[in-house]
Protein 1
Amino acid sequence: MNDKAKPLYEDEYCLLKIREGDEHFFNLLFGKYRNQLFAYLYRVTKSKEVAEEIVLDVFLKLWHGREAITGIQNFEAFLYKVAHNKAIDFFRAAKRSLALQQALWEAMAEAPADDNADSRLLLKNTDALIKEAINQLSPQRKKVFELRHYEDLSYAEIAATLNLSSNTVRNHLAASLQFIREYLEKNNALVLLLAIYFEKK
């Protein structure tokens, strides 16, 4: 078969060659889809490390199961379906792991204000408990939290508004998120929050 006569950019042909064990065509598909799959998974998981790990896992699954590759009509859709399922596995693990729960809350705190719109939407679904927790914060921490999550101010803008250092703002936000996380966990709402968080993606 003359490879040069084939449109190497077509996924179907690359899959055929991958099934034959050709690493070159595997690398072509990996390079073609890696960044967009990573962007999707990062948006879902809020973790660069987790997103990268899932991307690699998806392609490793493809390579190790290459001999069984048949009937894939839309490779891009197939990739996203596999990635989606692995992201679900991640959130199921998060429901059982306090460390992962903490990582999610920290990621929400570190995300730019524009990226936090989804997080605020999720918080709205547990509005009553969230408000209860926020009302138990100290006045200054409550103000910092509201400026960040409800008014979309940056750390620097909050610091200037309240005459605080950016580091103090960061510490207040971290402490506030930890308190809210623990409050939701105590009221059995954190698992629901994680589930809603994934569904909204």
Note: DSSP finds eleven helices and no strands in the chain.
Protein 2
Amino acid sequence: MLMADYPYFSNFHAEVTDLDQDGAVELSGWMGDKNKQDAGTFFSFTYSDTGSHPVWIDRSELVQGLMVAPQDSEAVHVLPSFSDLDDDGREDALLLRCATSGPDSGRVAFIFYQNTRNGSGGVSWQPRPDWGAGLPDTSVQQVVFTDLDQDGDADLVVGLANSRLQTLVPFVFYENSSAVMPSWQVRPGVLPETIAYDPYWGPVQKPDFLLADFDGDGDEDFLIRHEQAGLIFLRNRLITSVSDGPGVVLPGEIHVQAWPNPLSGRGRFSYSLQSGQRVSLRLYNIMGQVVRVLVEGRRTAGEHSGVIAVEGLPSGLYFLRLSAGGKTATRPLMIVR
């Protein structure tokens, strides 16, 4: 058996890869040690069918050099993902390092490695800390490489875990705007707010999802595990194009816009009301804490706008939440310094 030599390992995370481009796929990933919460190992196996029984061949040399060092003996688990990020035909690595105990519990680190061919034709990993600029550092549950906008490069869908903010958008789309070096930008409107919402049970709190072309139409669809409702399937036809605009607004629905996004100084917001009603517009950080109250009180029907003052707020991912008439709308907002 594949795991027979690893009886003390847990938190198994793996993907199908071809790291050395030899045409034979591997199963590559990370396993945490049951007895040592601050330890784990990277692995890679190639499958071989001898005719009588399948054999897994250890190819750990393919992941030699991938490292995630815990700090202060904290417990960690690692979610590895592989995709060609620099358009050289080789799969690079993203290691999502999650602290599960200690003073930094809940914090994550996006650790990137570039796959560069060594002199013997094998794999050599080069750390690329510059590839993680603009990505969040807390409350990340899962990341998946994708090309939802079909522009030929690897984008990211990030699943956020947060039980404090019930209407928090659980998935954020980060567009990669460069084919030769990752450059991540939040793109609101690509994923609808109700992407992981069940009418009876409400929103997903800890996203667990898979992206694949389930219906064979050439577009990647969503399969989401809801804690109470079970599996939620969402066809790609519900995913809008990459845009900072609100997309299609149905009668009776509300929406909020914010620009520029990302935001480095003062920005602006706008929203519209079909009738006079009480309105609340607040800015939340990724932990679900209110950091700015932008609107609070009764407003008349029509268009409304105002200033988003972010002085004193650190760089990172934030959320604008508009509540009016028993409805809510949430829009991600990235602040960069």
Note: Residues 163-167, 238-251 have pLDDT under 50 and may be disordered.
